[in-house]
Amino acid sequence: MEKGKDRAKMVDHIVEDEAIITKIEHKSHKIDSLIKQYRPVEALKTALDGSPPKTRDERCKSANWHVVHRALMAIKAVDLMFSNLDPEYYDILMKYLYRGLSTGDRQTCDQCLKIHEKLTQKAGLGCIIRALSDTVNTV
Amino acid sequence: MIILIEMAAIAVHQFADCITCHAWSPDQSMLALCPNNNEVHIYKLVEEKWERIHVLQKHDQIIVGIDWSKSSNRIVTVSHDRNSYVWNEEGSVWVPTLVILRLNRAALCVQWSPKGNKFAVGSGAKTVCICYYEQENNWWVSKLIRKRHDSSVTSVAWHPNNVLIATTSTDGKCRVFSTFIKGVDAGKPKKSGSGSLDAKFGEQIVQLDLSFCWAFGVKWSPSGNSLAYVGHNSMIYFVDQVGPSPLAQSVVLRDLPLRDVMFVSEKLVIGVGFDCNPMVFAADGTGLWSFVRFLDEKKAASSSGRSQFTEAFGKFYGSSKQGTSNDRGRAGVHDNCINCIVPLKKSETAKMTSFSTSGLDGKVVIWDLKNQEDLLEYL
After folding, report:
1. ipTM of the predicted structure?
2. Which domains does chain B have, with CATH numbers?
């Protein structure tokens, strides 16, 4: 009985995760066209919107990281970005910056550090604390 | 030596290298504190000078909770040695009575109930002990709330009705329990705004899942209609209509996390923590909570008599960070984490405007909000 329940739960999870992947694919197309139109901040907002921290599935997390990464790397003027980015995005952006820094890739780290400096000025140390202390809703 | 500052901080005194907790006598003429060891030191203000008049020695390990009953002049202490003592003043000596808590982990916090006939102890054993005095046996009895907590209980707070307690825990939750004890709580308490009160002992009234990491420092508002607690993720949570369908607000902090909170009035909350400077939160007309400002303005730092070396060191320390806003919290009266805030109230009916804080820097600071014009409307 318990096993049956567990299996049903697992199937539910798989269906949910598939739905998330489909959504991320949709987002990915939108982000590409926004970047082509030189609207990187809009692209970043789209990438951060509906990012899937609640799921434990690594595939969903890394799929979303790839779209966020593309949008992040398209940002040229960091100051300009912050004048168009609402504070509600700060916490989730910080989490993705730390994910970027953990890749160890030179270009990604350069970009993440540049944004990290500005974001810390804008959002304060509290924002870093929230990114580091949250072990449940990881990105 | 007392340094007077024309700011919210009206008195500062260095008692030790570090203070784990402190409490005031009912008439506020004496102060009990633990200087980060297994002793409680009691000080009295004699001719503008703090004199140590008693040292209470009975615990084996560091004392982390002291509360001085408002109604009965009794002191309760809890320690990492897993024990609790109730101290009675007999003549000029404080006589301890051991309270067997039946814990296998450290006790972490303690508070007397508003009537002073019970006290609650939070512990590292995922339990809360509700202790009460049994006249016939001349003995303090400890009744355990074993269920629900998945981790250490970091803070306990009594509702004004003497029955409900709120707890915070390192599993991130804030919970409200009934502590109704037959024979101790005479009759069924009157129903107030906080849900049903005819619950049995240990029954959970509500569990709040707002935080995803350690929760600390829960307190009730004076009416008992709201409560506030803090998370180690630089958030503070305000909960109205505590009961089956609570209304919760989360306020995001710009700065380092808080360790403890206190309601000054229904609309004003003070939070203290790792920023070394009390933070003021206020509710507007619609009940929306927000951060107002730090209580200790930067001006206070220059008048608090620091040496040139610490000034220079402060500059060096500040310059290693971006912007000036980040080191703002560290330039105040406290220069290390504040972990304890205690109300100072002249009488039951009087408006509370004053409170004291202590922390890892070994200072006790007394604050008064009376001269803070921008905050008067919330008092």
Report:
1. 0.83
2. 9-378 (2.130.10.10)
